[in-house]
Write a structure and sequence with these properties.
The protein is α/β, with parallel strands linked by helices. The chain has 2 domains: 9-142, translation initiation factor eif-2b, domain 1 (Four Helix Bundle (Hemerythrin (Met), subunit A), Up-down Bundle); 144-353, Translation initiation factor eif-2b, domain 2 (Rossmann fold, 3-Layer(aba) Sandwich). Helices cover 39% and strands 15% of the residues. Strands 6-5-4-7-10-13-14 form a 7-stranded mixed sheet, sandwiched between helices. 48% of the residues are buried. Bound molecules: 5-S-methyl-1-O-phosphono-5-thio-D-ribulose.
């Protein structure tokens, strides 16, 4: 990301500990920081999408637990553990689909469970240090995903992406946009088709903004134009992020992703998913079991973040935030450990169990 842009979400020691994040609801018009001084503010920021994108939600939750520990007024360990438990519950209730949230909370719980008996100060330090590690690891993972995807992105490629899986959706660099950034940095002279991504326009507001900041050639289209540009042979591959991947390789991502995958299959356009291993939910056999968040009808009724009534006030509204793309429509899943191909049950398991980043774990021919 360009020099002048602050981290998506970070810890600040100011005022006894603060979680500082970019308020993404104000972008691209204003680059405003939101300082969260308690867990409730972090939770609301996740719910209202001030911070959004699966890995960034996970990082925020981890920092939220560290914040709860720092802000707790408990004088003994039992009191602190009670405060941490309610922080955990509140954060876990924010958004149901992105598994990175639950992964990060589990990581923080591990620190709590392994605590030194009775030592509150030490536990506070350990929680902060694990949260900072989660944030830093996320950035490194995104860079590794970008490197691993280079083999899939040819010189001059036209890449279509949906929603925002960029630096703003992660600790930095991005997953799908990390792939795009890495190709650009490698001098591949790519061009990006940016789906606007209704209802909240993460593509038009956030991905477009990141690409313009980076000087990566890009063109914005409305969601319903993707089929047309593919039919005209103007798309070489689709690259998207994910909120949760089932053990069989079914992929939950922003609503509209499934439609894109179907159109891509129709036009023989490869459909790639870029995500860290922490996005894979090995406990779910298939995407059928992934909980899909439904959000407020106002998001559909308004355009972008405008508040005036833009559509018929009497119509019923359905607003699922995500959909699930079946694994047979996914050409490959790129993680920090390599490129996984079908059958995903096997390649994703191999990937989880392989010790090193960027190992060969069953390429896209299986
Ligand atoms: O509702 P959002 O904006 O949180 O949805 C975000 C997405 O769907 C992203 O594509 C996904 O979280 C991957 S982000 C690296």
């Amino acid at each position: 990301m360009g020099q002048r842009i602050p981290p998506t979400v970070a810890w600040s020691d100011r005022m006894g500990g603060t979680v500082r994040m970019i308020d993404q609801t104000r972008l691209p018009g204003e680059l405003t920081m939101l300082d969260c001084r308690d867990v409730e503010t972090v939770a609301r920021a996740i719910e209202r999408l001030s911070v959004r994108g699966a890995p960034a939600i996970g990082c925020s939750a981890a920092l939220g637990i560290a914040l709860a520990a720092h802000r707790s007024e408990a004088s003994d360990l039992d009191g602190l553990l009670e405060d941490l438990e309610s922080a955990h519950e509140r954060l876990a209730a924010t958004r149901p689909t992105a598994v990175n949230l639950f992964w990060a909370l589990r990581e923080m719980r591990r620190v709590i469970d392994a605590r030194a008996i009775g030592d509150i100060t030490r536990l506070r330090e350990q929680l902060l240090s694990r949260a900072l590690e989660i944030v830093e690891d996320d950035l490194n993972r995104c860079r590794a995903i970008g490197r691993n995807a280079l083999e899939l992105i040819p010189h001059g490629a036209n890449i279509l992406t949906h929603c925002n899986a960029g630096a703003l959706a992660t600790a930095g660099y991005g997953t799908a946009l990390g792939v795009i950034r890495a190709a650009h940095e490698a001098g591949r002279e790519i061009h990006v088709w940016v789906d606007e991504t209704r209802p909240l326009l993460q593509g038009a507001r956030l991905t477009a903004w990141e690409l313009c900041e980076e000087g990566i050639p890009a063109t914005l289209i409305t969601d319903n134009m993707a089929g047309y540009v593919m039919k005209r042979g103007k798309v070489d591959c689709v690259v998207v992020g994910s909120d949760r991947i089932a053990a069989n390789g079914d992929v939950a991502n922003k609503i509209g992703t499934y439609t894109l995958a179907v159109i891509a299959a129709r036009h023989d356009v490869p459909f790639y998913v870029a995500a860290p291993i922490s996005t894979v939910d090995y406990d779910l056999a298939s995407g059928e079991q992934i909980p899909i968040e439904e959000r407020a009808s106002e998001e559909v009724a308004m355009l972008g973040h405008q508040t005036e009534q833009a559509i018929c006030p009497d119509i019923a509204i359905f607003n699922p935030a995500f959909d699930v793309t079946p694994c047979d429509l996914v050409t490959a899943i790129v993680t920090e450990k390599g490129v996984a191909g079908s059958p995903y049950e096997r390649s994703l398991l191999n990937m989880r169990d392989s010790p090193n980043d960027s190992d060969e774990v069953g390429g896209i021919d299986g």
